[in-house]
Write a structure and sequence with these properties.
Length: 128
């Protein structure tokens, strides 16, 4: 997978800070995705949720000073079982369900959650 426009992480301890403040455990594969591709846009960006084609705009930045950040997303996504890690061009979030470890699509206007039926690695590999 080719990614563009990566921004390096400013704080290497950000994962433990989020884990402590949210009382969650971030899976290692998600940490690695953010370390490798923080704020980056994938070259292949489409994915399916049911019969609907969706767009993966970019990985959310884990730097507080950037525009589209995980911190802003956490203000919108109130479910503690969901960790936003991506955003689409319309302000919706791509999240990891921390219980099932499935990637879900979160509609920010309706709070509707739709499962992709895929784990993180499978989801990234399925982008087209």
């Amino acid at each position: 997978m080719v990614w563009k426009y990566k921004i390096d992480l400013e704080d290497k301890t950000i994962f433990s800070k989020i884990e402590q403040s949210r009382e969650i455990e971030i899976p290692e594969d998600l940490k690695q995705l953010v370390i490798d591709e923080n704020a980056a846009t994938p070259e292949k960006y489409c994915f399916m949720v049911g019969n609907n084609e969706r767009v993966f705009g970019s990985v959310l930045s884990f730097n507080k000073s950037d525009d589209d950040t995980v911190f802003k997303a956490l203000d919108v996504v109130q479910d503690k079982n969901l960790l936003p890690f991506g955003i689409d061009p319309f302000g919706n979030y791509i999240c990891l369900n921390l219980k099932s470890e499935e990637v879900v699509f979160f509609d920010h206007e309706t709070d509707r959650i739709e499962s992709t039926g895929k784990k993180l690695k499978q989801f990234i590999e399925s982008l087209y």
